[in-house]
Structures are given as C-alpha cells and as structure tokens.
Design brief:
mainly alpha, single chain, 130 residues
Length: 130
C-alpha cells in the first residue's frame, strides 16, 4: 500500500513539475549553460517573499485563513531560489576548474608530442561557453 502511494505521488509530481515556475527555473539554472545564472536567479526570491508577507498581512487583517497556505508555498519557493544561488555558484567554480585542468593537460600532451604552437591555435572543448 505504501509503495502504491509513493508511486502515484511520484508520477503526479513529475507530471506537474513543468508547470511549477520555480522548478522550471531551478532545472534551467542547474544545466551547464545555466550555472552562471544561479546567483541572479536568487533575486527572484524577493518577489516571492514580498508576496508571502502580503498574504500574511491580509490574514492578520481578517482575511481568509487559506492564505496561510499560499504564504507557506511562497516562502518555500523563495527558499528554493535562495539555496539555488550558492549551489550553482559552487558548481560553476568546480566545472571551470575541471575545464582548466583539461585544457592544461591537453596543452602539455601536445607539447610533449612535439606539436608546436604553430600547428594549433587553441584547444577546442566541447563547450567553451560560460
């Protein structure tokens, strides 16, 4: 029974994942091309936080209690975006360090093989975009 509930929950989650804006942003930011946008994506947490504060203010002023759930959802989305920034920055540093090591090793191998700098211009990586 627990396995059935777990499976149904997972299928529903992946079915609606594309419609959740913060998950779309997180997925885009965690690609190699999107790593540089992780820190600016943290700024999207500001509108989510302001909307949460607004919802809580409306509830305290006598509004519907259901707005507390929306406020909780907004805070959760803001936290996801805040955590994505430093995470992607660290991953970007690691990827760039690894790419620099590959470039260095390829250059050293070419020099050891006797290929002069006049025969090659630059080592071409699969992705030289940042």
């Amino acid at each position: 029974m627990f396995g059935l509930i777990w499976g149904v929950t997972a299928r529903i989650h992946y079915a609606v994942r594309g419609f959740m804006p913060t998950n779309v942003v997180r997925d885009a930011v965690h690609t190699r091309r999107g790593l540089k946008w992780g820190v600016p994506a943290m700024l999207l947490a500001i509108p989510y936080s302001l909307a949460a504060v607004f919802c809580v203010g409306v509830v305290e002023a006598g509004g519907s209690g259901w707005l507390n759930l929306i406020a909780l959802l907004l805070v959760w989305n803001a936290l996801k975006l805040l955590i994505a920034g430093p995470t992607t920055f660290i991953r970007l540093l690691r990827v760039r360090r690894r790419e620099a090591q590959v470039r260095r090793r390829a250059t050293q191998a070419m020099i050891l093989d006797g290929i002069g700098s006049d025969r090659f211009e630059a080592v071409v990586l699969s992705s030289n975009r940042t």
